Amino acid sequence: MSTLSLALDAEGQVVSALTAPKKAAYTCLECGHSVHVKRGSERAAHFAHDHEDPSGCAGESVTHLAAKRLLLTQVKAELEADRRVLWVQHCPGTEGPCRMRAVLPQHFAVTGIFDVCEEVMHGRYRFDVAVVVGGRAVFGFEVYYRHAVPEEKAADLDVPWLELVAEDILEFKPRVPWRGGFSRRHCPDCQTLAAALQERQQRDAARGVQTSKFVAEVTQVRKTWADILGAARAMDDRQKLSRDSK
Question: Is the whole model's pTM more than 0.90, yes or no?
Fold first, then answer.
């Protein structure tokens, strides 16, 4: 059986075996049975079932379930405080990665009476977690643990949604989407750099136009002088033939 590092406490909050008090009661995220903390010097901290576990609970499944439960709690708190779903995206940079490694805040405003639920159906698909208004998902979340959202599903989802890495959720990292992690906008530093590059390109283009005009003028002058010299030589040749014929 896989090691279970996460469980639910008496209040339904996700807790880690590394920090959970030993004498409290906990519940397995997968099977709902009672578990207790085992933490010592010979083995990594983990939760063990109080009795022999017939369900074969897996650490992989528990990680995914814990991430969903924690995400639900976080999103619900955000909406109750500010009525907005929050996340960040990386600055795409200009002529290479962003030098400041900036992240840009994003949000989705939620209006009306809302709820945040797990396993929400949306058309023929199901969101791991979703913000629901009027019985319909208006913003969805997919928790990426081992398996990403299939391309067919990603293309068909018709509401805003994020795909988040389970470990990032559990480690309280900034909410950066696994898919679509780069913004179309730039940070102030990259905006300044982009403006400078555009100005330089415009100057280079203007110089290129002037150079083309100069080259065309020089070419025309050379052609004109070549025509003049050619006419002069032809006249000299005619005069010489006339003298020789006399």
Answer: no
